[in-house]
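Quick one:
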Amino acid sequence: MKRRIIKQAHIVNEGKITVADVLIVGERIENISNAITAKNGDVVTDAEGRYLLPGVIDDQVHFREPGLTHKGNIYSESRAAVSGGITSFMEMPNTIPNTLTQALLEEKYLLASKTSLANHSFFMGINQNNLEEALRTDNENVCGITDDGLYFNNDEGILANYPEFLERLFARTDALVALHSEDDSIIKDNTNQYRKKFGEFIPFDCHPKIRSEAACLTATKRVLEIAKKHNNRLHLFHISTLAEANLFDAKTAIREKRITAEACIHHLGFSDLDYAKLGAKIKWNPAVKTEADKNGLLKALLDNKLDIIATDHAPHTIEEKNGSYFKSLSGGPLVQHALPYMLELVHQGKISIEKTVEKMSHHVAEIYRIKDRGYIREGYYADLTLVDMNKEWTVSSENIHAKCGWSPFENQCFKSKIVKTFVNGELVYDDGVFNENTQGKRLKFEKHR
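Output:
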């Protein structure tokens, strides 16, 4: 069995930084100690001066396969992910067809088993017509149930706007339910007001006024009230306002929380001040909001009101992002640049590297009860990323790996670079070079969330 030793890395794990060697045998970490002697045939990586982190686990991506592969596919986007230090992802059901049956869900797993460079799981989608099918979801083999990216009722609405259905779902499911939370009626009213004022050419800096704080806060309060009533395992995706973040529990230990929530890279990295320069490139749903929200979300992460950091990686072609407000699609690519951006905040003294690892790896594993991942521990899978904290590089069209070929971070100079990524003990990314002879594994979970 293949043996690999990573020598003298600064290991960032469980709130500490220690310098040590890591022995990987096959897919798993066998030993972590001050000095491990190499044997004949061992592959040795000199990591002196570099930082070894648990691989990032991204619980919210849209990799577009099947049906939308002109934007991206499991292969291309998992390739971008590992180049950004992401070793595991969980993917949304708004592909074509939508993932609304167990059979379609398993088809996605089959695709990923052949083409994904990263470990993977796929959410089961839910709408008004498939409750019984969704309730059959296997907690040990599927990350959860979600409405993210789907319409609840034909061509409109998300689940947060249908409290009676939420009552029925929460009363019956023991799965983790992950939701997108905005109030459609408020958004519709705001849209009509701005359309009357600007016609089809609404300025992009009006997006956070249309998909407003009130739209987010109203829906989130509604969902939280129902979930608390039933004591469900609820996870709220992409919280975009400080007002929402302040609704969440900061005191309960992560394993004990019944309701958890996340911030996304675009809401941490951009604000309404950036629409003038970037326009549609930072058009997301929920919208990128104020500078106060951006700073408040980071503080909520530090205070443990928000539990994890995700990307909501949702690539569109640049043509699909161009045009008027109504023609430009919401979403963008982020998996490659999420960890480098957070490490930039580390350099700025806004967050520690230990807390970054907690929010991008440890807590994701705890929230979803992922087996044997998310930490650098003996016996765990060797999902690791090696970072040079002092290797500057600039994002350009030449080094973007997402299929769509653009990024809202283009021309950004990052001070830190991901130099190696290991998935299940295999070196899949090595400073610009990919090992495409290996695939990631299906994530496994504890039965009880």
